[in-house]
Design goal:
alpha+beta, OB fold (Dihydrolipoamide Acetyltransferase, E2P), Trna Endonuclease, Chain: A, domain 1, 2 domains, 6-stranded mixed beta sheet, 3 helices
């Protein structure tokens, strides 16, 4: 996935109201950037961090800039825009590298489904084959090389797990894909110390038949590339 235009560098001054950030650009101008991330962004929103923004030419947008990347401790670049995670996974749908997602004829996005009024990120369909419901989660939290989700208590994430289990019960396929937008990881685990209920539901969903994948990405200022799968470790230590 390539960015549409060159990113603009700057320094993070603060993140606030969850979806906004003040950034001082390299030119010295201070701008407000949209933050497309509902999580706590632990370790990724430290004032003074180097960040990169994309710019929109749409005059109807309230914020011209969108926060895309941040440099965290150790010089690692992290993609914080959750919308990019969906784009990255969509790019893998025609790749035999992820056979769980391969070979479907059509794709629909943001399709309403379930008893709890959810919208699935990606719905794959093919004649004479059960539809495949894909929920994508963007992962930025890493501790000692272990990627974890969620980074805050996520009632919405818990709801999605329940919905995916219902999909399987109805005879269709359900896939939960964790897109890790940073390269400094070797495995994925649920963040039980942050949201114990999510961890319990994730294990239950996996046992129920929901496929759980974790894909690692390499971000840079030109674009973001999914590089490899990482093991999903669900056994509690």
């Amino acid at each position: 996935m390539l960015f549409d235009s060159a990113l603009v560098g700057g320094k993070l001054l603060r993140r606030y109201k969850r979806f906004l950030a003040d950034v001082r650009l390299e030119s010295g101008e201070t701008v407000i950037a949209h933050t497309a991330n509902t999580g706590a962004m632990t370790g990724c929103a430290q004032p003074g961090s180097r960040v990169w923004l994309s710019a929109s030419s749409n005059p109807k947008r309230k914020c011209q800039y969108t926060w895309e990347l941040v440099e965290v401790e150790g010089g690692t670049l992290v993609g914080i825009n959750t919308l990019r995670a969906n784009q990255l996974v969509t790019e893998q749908l025609n790749s035999a590298d992820v056979p769980e997602l391969y070979g479907y004829e059509s794709i629909r996005r943001e399709v309403a489904y379930g008893e709890e009024r959810s919208r699935i990120d990606l719905l794959l369909e093919q004649h004479l084959r059960p539809p495949c419901y894909i929920e994508v989660k963007n992962v930025t939290l890493v501790e000692k090389g272990v990627a974890m989700f969620p980074d805050a208590i996520s009632l919405r994430g818990q709801k999605h797990l329940r919905e995916l289990m219902t999909v399987v019960a109805d005879g269709d396929r359900a896939v939960l894909c964790f897109c890790i937008q940073r390269h400094d990881v070797h495995e994925f685990r649920p963040a039980d110390h942050i949201d114990v209920h999510y961890g319990r539901l994730l294990r239950e969903a996996h046992a129920w038949g929901v496929d759980v994948l974790a894909l690692k990405a390499q971000p840079d200022v030109g674009g973001i590339t999914l590089t490899e799968r990482v093991p999903v470790m669900l056994k509690q230590s």
